[in-house]
Predict the 3D structure of the following.
Amino acid sequence: MLIDIKDIAREGTLIERVMTIGTLRGSGNEPIPTGVTRVRALLSRGSRGVDFSCRVESSLTLECARCLEPYEMPVSSDFHLVFVSRMPAHGTENQLEEEDCELYPVSEGKVDLPEVLREQLYLSIPLKPLCREDCCGLCPRCGINRNIASCDCEALGQNQVSSPSIVWLPRSPKQ
């Protein structure tokens, strides 16, 4: 959905949509499916450009960093941007001011709303996604998901890491 910022009325324009954003890509290019996305946004003309105040609600299917199981994370984000046709000049300095961080340059006077929403969804992805705060993860010895089942590795004193996903390098002989 393209928004032509020239068509925004002085009194503002309200957008309420349910849309599909598509699949995001993680840092390793793995797919991150998104759920149905609800958008409520107000666009209005301001002194620096077109003010865009938005609430986006969706869900992301992420992989837990501890147990490696997929889980659905709800996302609800409020944000504000100012759409501008070109970035303001700051003379010879290239230092950004705090108010510059909400500026969003648009090309040819049109805003790609799904792309703006995708960026906001990317910002909501945690650095270490967890299916739940108390996730027990995988046993480092046998690899069992400790959220689903338990193992006897620790009770047997086998708490050394030797998971099939870890490759041990041979020790070099002492000289």
